[in-house]
From TrEMBL:
Annotated ABC transporter domain residues: 2-227
InterPro entries the UniProt entry points to: AAA+_ATPase (IPR003593), ABC_transporter-like_ATP-bd (IPR003439), ABC_Transporter_VariousFunc (IPR051782), P-loop_NTPase (IPR027417)
PANTHER family attached to this UniProt entry: ABC TRANSPORTER ATP-BINDING PROTEIN ALBC-RELATED (PTHR42939)
rRNA processing recorded as keyword: no
Gene3D superfamilies the UniProt entry points to: P-loop containing nucleotide triphosphate hydrolases
Protein name: ABC-2 type transport system ATP-binding protein
Source organism of this protein record: Thermosyntropha lipolytica DSM 11003
Manganese in keyword set: no
Length: 299
């Protein structure tokens, strides 16, 4: 759906994006993570056709987005700071969107009133920040986009609304093959939604992961010995020992479950357990020396 190749974008002498590439499959959810100033908004605005990159290419279904209204009509973009026209009510905004977006769906708009339960004749600017964000989602879902680009969209929503919005996002992907790119400072906030995760840091893509892949190919294993711990168990091929307490060791190790079990059974431990592995552990392990950038994403 989205192919970005070596995107570079500068603001004066600051490189906000530096040779960033990514690929987003149709009907998937791509989570873009990064600390403040990492370049997330800049990348999302290039995807939404608001900014133009200085170098590199970006296409959506094979077509460029910048100055391409036909592609933009298929995209709903919810920016981190949402702008609404003065005095516009929710209904006014809906009427406006209807003239712009061919996918606009009146029935869906009216049905979603049950979810968002804000009176449609309220002036949007008079609503609270969280309510304005709800309106942004309400309108975005109603225009049946093929792609939703969401910049820190859950900020300011209360926990119940977050849950409802997440459910709606997932059902749009499952039922209509919608694609989503969603940014966040916080991996925990979006890890349950995403199929892929990309981590930006200081304008560069540090790491991209298919979350199903990692689940199948990385394991956390706890071992206990009733004799001296074999010294060669700490060799790099076995992965990283993240904890050592007396004769108990915990490793993060690459490979299928069977491979990891047979790798460590060779050392004849008295106990071998496969433990659940969190994304935090995976990313910190993968990032090695650069883990400071990743650790922030779990705070
Ligand atoms: N319009 C602009 N003019 C000048 N510099 C900009 C502009 N927009 C972004 N930048 C700079 O580009 C870098 C990346 O900014 P960006 O907004 O993309 O980061 P971000 O990852 O979205 O950050 P945050 O999580 O804080 O919103 C920052 O150093 C920022 O100061």
């Amino acid at each position: 759906m989205i192919e970005a190749h070596m995107l570079t974008k500068c603001f004066y002498d600051l490189k906000a994006l530096d040779k960033v590439s990514l690929s987003v499959r149709k009907a998937s959810i791509y989570g873009l993570l990064g600390s403040n100033g990492a370049g997330k908004t800049t990348l999302l605005k290039i995807m939404a056709g608001i900014y133009q990159q200085e170098e590199g290419e970006l296409s959506i279904e094979g077509k460029p987005v910048f100055e391409n209204p036909a592609v933009k009509r298929k995209i709903a973009f919810i920016p981190d700071q949402i702008y609404y026209y003065d005095n516009f009510t929710i209904d006014d905004m809906a009427r406006f969107y209807k003239t712009v977006y061919p996918g606009w769906d009146d029935k869906k708009y009216l049905k979603l009133e049950e979810v968002f339960s804000i009176e449609r004749n309220r002036k949007i600017r008079s609503l609270s920040k969280g309510m304005q964000r709800q309106v942004a989602f309400w309108l975005a879902f109603s225009l049946n986009p093929e792609l939703m680009i969401l910049d820190e969209p859950l900020d300011g929503l209360d926990p119940i609304m977050r849950k409802k919005v997440k459910q709606l996002l997932v059902s749009e992907v499952a039922e209509r093959d919608m694609t989503i790119v969603i940014s966040s400072h916080n991996l925990r906030e979006i890890e349950d939604l995403c199929d892929y995760i990309g981590i930006l840091h200081k304008g560069k893509m540090l790491l991209q992961k298919d979350l199903d892949d990692y689940k199948a190919n990385m394991h956390k294993v706890q071992l206990a010995f009733n004799k001296e711990i074999p010294a060669d168990i700490f060799k790099p091929e076995n992965g990283e020992c993240i904890e050592k307490r007396g004769s108990v060791l915990i490793f993060i190790s690459r490979g299928s479950r069977d491979e990891v079990v047979s790798r460590f059974m060779a050392y004849k431990p008295v106990i071998l357990d496969i433990l659940p592995l969190t994304l935090e552990e995976v990313f910190i392990y993968e990032m090695g020396g650069k883990d400071y950038a990743v650790k922030q994403l779990f705070d």
